[in-house]
Design a protein that fits this description.
6-stranded mixed beta sheet, disordered N terminus, Purple Acid Phosphatase, chain A, domain 2, alpha/beta, globular, disordered C terminus
Length: 344
């Protein structure tokens, strides 16, 4: 069989899988394994600071809210007609993490130049074991193989992206250990998200009204002030830092005199917060427009009972934002104590 026929057959299979996923029907375990193998080959060639051309539509957290993701594609345009950049946190908390991340990865394999998928702090083995993705995989597949396949793939996701050398995109925020984009380019990203250090900071940090660096209430990363943003802009010739990671009620929120913007793309977060979502469209002239998305009614009310059981730790957004980082910090401290006493 010629190379062209092989490619045509592969694309045909992918198109069938994408059509199935768009109906919110998960792939088989073997299909997920094959898909992630192809995705790994693509992602391992991408940079820690992945260059992206405009026009592009930039999206924030999705958190397993598949039907809201489908609505974003309806509003923003289907891939590959629209070029997309997602800034992480595809899994956990929502009920359809499996379908959400599988669809995004399948689109990456089918249209590698038309969609960029960055790593968020929830694309992590430790976090997903607590916040829903692991349990969802067990429930839908009867074992943890799909969870392991995806979490192994997460290690290859780029950490950041750079749109037309001007808009720096990442999930969390800045790091006191990172002054230049070249610093990031030199990371070895193929690993579990560390509990501290520059790679951790990029996925966990938040902008703050106070100047300088601060201790993050999340238990991981830092807070950073406008002076830090301005210096990073100046050093790297940037016009904007776009990030996700925080629930904002209007779907987007400016900080640091419009040098930093937070984009959140999961409306009615956790099916109860009542927030809007947004996406950021950057056109050919590098002008940007926010599109706000209102909440989408849950498609399956019966599933909300299971979701509520997972979220029993808190139903208020102000509490939810901190728990993952505190868990991560406590887990590492516990493992260190165990190693001292040789507890296994």
């Amino acid at each position: 069989m010629s190379a062209d026929l092989v490619a045509e057959s592969t694309n045909g299979n992918l198109d069938e899988q994408i059509a199935q996923l768009i109906q919110c029907k998960p792939l088989s375990e073997s299909e997920v394994r094959g898909l992630c193998g192809k995705a790994k080959e693509i992602l391992m060639e991408e940079s820690n600071v992945q260059p992206v051309k405009s026009p592009v539509t930039i999206c924030g957290d999705i958190h397993g809210q598949f039907h809201d993701l489908a609505e974003l594609f309806r509003i923003g345009g289907k891939c590959p007609d629209t070029n997309y950049l997602f800034m992480g946190d595809y899994v956990d908390r929502g009920y359809y993490s499996v379908e959400t991340v599988t669809l995004l990865v399948s689109l990456k394999v089918r249209y590698p130049q038309r969609i960029t998928i960055l790593r968020g702090n929830h694309e992590s083995r430790q976090i997903t074991q607590v916040y829903g993705f692991y349990d969802e995989c067990l429930r839908k597949y009867g074992n943890a193989n799909v969870w392991k396949t995806f979490t192994d793939l997460f290690d290859y996701f780029p950490l950041t992206a750079l749109v037309e050398s001007e808009i720096f995109c990442l999930h969390g925020g800045l790091s006191p250990s990172v002054e230049t984009l070249d610093n990031i380019r030199n990371f070895d990203r193929v690993q579990e998200v560390p509990h501290e250090g520059p790679m951790c900071d990029l996925l966990w940090s938040d902008p703050d009204d106070r100047c300088g660096w601060g201790i993050s209430p999340r238990g991981a990363g830092y807070t950073f002030g406008q002076d830090i943003s301005e210096q990073f802009h100046h050093t790297n010739s940037l016009k904007l830092i776009a990030r996700a990671h925080q629930l904002v009620m209007e779907g987007y929120n400016w900080a640091h005199e419009q040098k930093v913007v937070t984009i959140f793309s999961a409306p009615n977060y956790c099916y109860r917060c009542g927030n809007m979502a947004s996406i950021l469209e950057v056109d050919d002239c590098r002008e940007h427009t926010f599109i706000q998305v209102f909440l989408i009614p849950p498609q399956d009310e019966a599933n909300l009972t299971l979701l509520e059981e997972r979220l029993i730790i808190s139903c208020r957004a102000g509490e939810l934002v901190y728990t993952a980082g505190q868990f991560l910090r406590c887990l590492h401290a516990f493992l260190q104590i165990c190693s001292l006493f040789q507890v296994h």
